[in-house]
Amino acid sequence: MPSEPIEIKIKILRQEIEELNYQYYVLDNPSYPDSHYDKLLQELISIEKKHPELITDNSPTQRVGGQPLSGFSQITHLTPMLSLDNVFDSDSFGKFYERVFHKIASDQPITFTCEPKLDGLAISCLYKNGNLVHAATRGDGKIGEDVTHNIKTIQSIPLKLRGDFPELLDVRGEVFMPKDSFEKLNKNAIKDGNKTFANPRNAAAGSLRQLDPKITAKRKLAVYFYALGNAEFKKLQNDAEQTSDERLADSHHNRLKQIQSWGLPICDEIELRHGDKACLEYFKEIGAKREQLPYEIDGIVYKVDSILSQDKLGFVAKAPRWAIAHKFPAQEEMTLLKGVDFQVGRTGAITPVARLEPVFVGGVMVSNATLHNKDEIERLDVRVGDHVVIRRAGDVIPQIVSVVLDKRDVNASSIIFPKVCPICQSPLEKEIDQAIYRCTGGLICSAQKTQSIIHFVSRKAMNIDGLGDKLVEVLCDKQLINSVADIYQLSKDDLIGLERMAEKSANNLLQAIEKSKQTSLAKVIYALGIREVGEVTAMNLANNLFDFKNIINANLEELENIEDIGPIVAKHIVAFFENENNRQVIESLISHGVSWPEIKPKDKSELPLLNQTWVLTGALSQLKRNDAKAVLQSLGAKVSGSVSKNTTCVVAGESAGSKLKKAIELGIEVISEEEMLKLISSFQIVKI
Ligand code: JCF
Hints:
Layout: H1 6-26, H2 34-50, E1 74-76, E2 86-87, H3 90-104, E3 111-118, E4 121-128, E5 131-137, E6 143-145, H4 148-151, E7 168-176, H5 179-191, H6 200-208, H7 213-218, E8 222-232, H8 252-261, E9 271-274, H9 276-288, E10 297-304, H10 307-313, E11 315-316, E12 319-320, E13 323-327, E14 332-344, E15 350-361, E16 364-370, H11 374-380, E17 387-391, E18 399-403, E19 428-430, E20 437-439, H12 446-457, H13 469-477, H14 492-495, H15 503-515, H16 521-527, H17 535-545, H18 548-553, H19 556-560, H20 567-578, H21 580-591, E21 613-617, H22 625-634, E22 638-640, E23 649-652, H23 658-666, E24 669-671, H24 673-682
Parallel strand pairs: 2-13, 21-22, 21-23, 23-24
Antiparallel strand pairs: 1-6, 3-9, 3-10, 4-5, 4-7, 7-8, 10-13, 11-12, 14-15, 14-17, 15-16, 17-18, 19-20
């Protein structure tokens, strides 16, 4: 088959890109993931590079952003609002660096201001004599939409500047919706049966373009500024020699500090880095703490720091030659939904699991995604055979965010939620106001039984090395174990002969089982898998009630008096221990030798970290941040979000940044996560 003429290929690509542009910029409601758009645009750019004679003025490669929306008045920017060129890997960044290095003809590594690339929308704010005059979106780069009324609802935007501000200031930044506001907004939308936003950026764009500022005000937007458009100072009488430009700093980083001194918010992750390697390290560091940041980012922006060098480098088309955006691997990709299985968890929860055509997303190959529950399937109106947008962020289980309806096949078939447990056929139940259906089979259900044993032996519970999920399944299938207590009755004969289980591995496993008997009360409580009782709740139960007798006999009121336990968790705990079977399991565990150090009641005034203020920063690898916080609090510490001279100790996880720097500057004690865990377990009352 002859390949289609290049002119046709270009035409189709441009049409597709224009359609996506329209969905993205005008409707704030894209149906495809950004990665799809990026692929099409990169393809068009590379074809146009080979065939420059085919570039037209109205090719999507030749413009920035979308058309201004009608419904808003228009504002012509004093200087055009630029966009950024992208790179998608470190080699391409390396080439960018080389170009800059040669053009500047430096013999030193180049210094860059590095900043997270916020995933929001660009705005320009104009201040005259320190007063906010108007704010505009980027629009097509030359003319934007007047969103002054809506911008004024953002609490952190100053209506008046402070300090030594210029007479005229056009300052550029990114408006975004913090992750927690976004989650709240979508939760409410689901509750009210309204449409949800695909991501925080669309939510921010949709909110900023409300014709009614009252709606914008409810949507909790935020802003960080990242560049000057124009700045003109009043002529000073006593210093007539100094021009307006001379009163601006001569480096980008210091200009940002000036912007901040005028009362405008700046992202606190921004740092100077010298040379290409250091820039790539910054990329890695921010990548590692991306999930912990309270806002969505999609890459790093590097800017040549020296303004003199920036001027030397100049611009191409609509982007500066002195800056580049280095994008993280896409977290959203499109793929095919091949089928749906229904899994039964240890508490009987039925979870629909999407089987996908494998796709590379967020840096790994993904072939399954959770569909959460029945409501979610209905909300998404997803069918087998659909093209779906998959999102994988950090270590979170991949999710289906939306269906690409443009690509729906006529044969796509509805997903039928089961009426009974797919494993044991027991009836399903659902609590009012809850979305989860549960199998009522309890320990008759082999899936629940197996899953609860898998939980029991897991690392944070009894931590039995060498007893993986597969082996637990085999032991359950062969009826070698029927409850968690049976693990402690396994003999070498039981094990030898199982697949891949020779004498040596059998011995190792028996040793690991033996070793697991010496544990802590908190771990045993956690291992039992009581609904809603995680590590921290288990620890609180142990530290407040001291032994199993008290825990088993505690009533709702006593339980609710314990920190972090509410009425629902208390009910689950009482229900668990009312069950004769569960009480027997505990007795049996103890009779097999499972034991823990006695916990002595302690006086509140003896809390080891009382009156101390701790700060957690960077990525923690063992405890979730909230759990670490709860443990420190249970030891008497206050946990704060920022470092000051009153901070007692900073726990620095991987890729800790500005807070760590500040702690070192202030001479505050800094310890690693490992050291924190050691310290915690050295305190008698808390064993983790
Ligand atoms: O955070 C951003 N999305 C961002 C966008 C940051 C920047 O420093 C930018 C930008 C777009 C254009 N700088 C330019 C020049």
